[in-house]
Amino acid sequence: MRSYILFFAAVLALPVIAAPPVDDNQPARLAVIKQRIDNLQKELNQVKDARDQLLKELQSNEKNIAELHQRIDKIKRDMQSRNNKLRKLKQQQQQLEASRRSMQRRVEEEIAAAYQLGRQEKLKLLLNQQDPQHIARQLRYYEYFLKARYRIIDDYLDTLENLTTVSAGIEQERDALAEEQEQLQLRQQQLSGAQKNRQGTLDKFTVMLASKSDELGQLQADRNRLQKLVDEVSQAITSLTRNAEQIAFASRRGRMPWPSSGRRGNAYGQRRANGLTWMGVTIRADEGMPVKAIHPGQVVFADYLRGQGMLLILDHGDGYMSLYGHNQSLTRTLGEWVAEDEIIARVGNSGGNSESALYFEIRHRGKPQDPARWCRS
Predict the structure, then answer these.
(1) Which of 137, 279, 330, 365 could join 319 in a cystine, given CB atoms 3.0 to 4.6 angstroms apart?
(2) Backbone angles phi, psi at 287, to 5 degrees
(3) What is the mean pLDDT of the segment spanning 88-102?
């Protein structure tokens, strides 16, 4: 009985994972969703005045920065993998070198023994023995030692060959690492330039929003833009296949993790200085910190949205969505299924923010919910 209890306890302790349902038409449905979102993006990104032009430049700057961060992260992962491989190759080289030294002594001993006996070992054995049975026994011993000697030499040659192969592999990995290091430096230089361009555009935009009324108008436009996107996504995803085995979002109220560690900069519904109220929560966190899914779900938006920067939206079924904005970069794309606590983005300041932070919302049928009521306090 105790073993059954332990088994079920272990099963309950496993992480909640969103297994993608089998649906041959799912890619086509996702393509339709992407097309609808692309059409909406074109409408939202229309350049009507100088402010829109600056926002378009900012979007270009920040998408470029996000792409560079993704490339830099990939290079770093590749370099880490190569360093691990190089370390293992060096360990293998040390082991082979130790074997080579040991075998070399054995080979030298066998060569010396063979030299002392001379080339006519078998003939001398026959001439020096009279008893046929004894001669036969001695010949078998002789063949055994001869084969053993050949094995020692063959093993030594194999070790030398393996050592040569490993040494060549080490040189190859070192060359590849040096090339990746150059690529990393190049991307970092490009990133520095892109960040300067972004700051220049942001400074111009800040000057343009000189009055509080201009700032309020821009924030309201950003909110309307996000609402249009959420409404469009909500309508578009109704055709998607749901995972019937997934634990319902509503059943985990108050027990889900926050998407990122950090101090909450505001409370849901709190009034802002410009008169608007917060529809989500801003989590102050260092740039590059991981952003994790609060519940299993499917990515239904992963792109740039004016006012939100690099934005990712997860559909959790039953009309529930979670939104993650102002990211530095996104690690998941449209249509992917993610598990709870899986990294989906990196904290950033995209969308025109001056400081790095994650903007986080939970919505049900398009309407904002208080994240504090859903995530663990």
Answers:
(1) 365
(2) -60, 135
(3) 83
How many other C-beta atoms are found inside a 10 Å radius of the C-beta of residue 354? 9
Question: Up-side HSE of residue 30: CA atoms within 13 Å toward CB?
Answer: 17
- Could you give the C-alpha distances from 300 to 248, 314, 317, in angstroms and in order? 18, 6, 11
Query: 224: number of CA atoms within 13 Å, CB side?
Result: 9
Q: For residues 37 and 233, is the Cβ–Cβ distance under 8 A?
A: yes
Q: What is residue 332's DSSP assignment?
A: -
pLDDT one-digit tens code per residue, 225-236: 888 888 888 888
Which pair of structure tokens corresponds to residue 339?
A: 């598990």
- For 8-23, write each residue's pLDDT tens digit: 344 344 444 455 555 5
Q: Are 298 and 240 in contact (CB under 8 A)?
A: yes
Cα distances from 125 to residues 112, 136, 143, 146, in angstroms, run 19, 10, 12, 14
- Work out the number of other CB atoms within 10 angstroms of the CB of residue 321: 24
What letter would DSSP give residue 68? H
Residue whose structure tokens are 């239904």: 300
DSSP three-state, residue 292: strand
> For residue 65, what is the enclosing H or E element?
helix 50-117
Number of residues assigned to the chain:
377
Helix axes 121-128, 50-117, angle to 10 degrees: 30
- Quick one: tokens of 26? 């799912």
State the Cα–Cα distance between residues 329 and 346, nearest whole angstrom: 5
Q: pLDDT at residue 4 above 80?
A: no
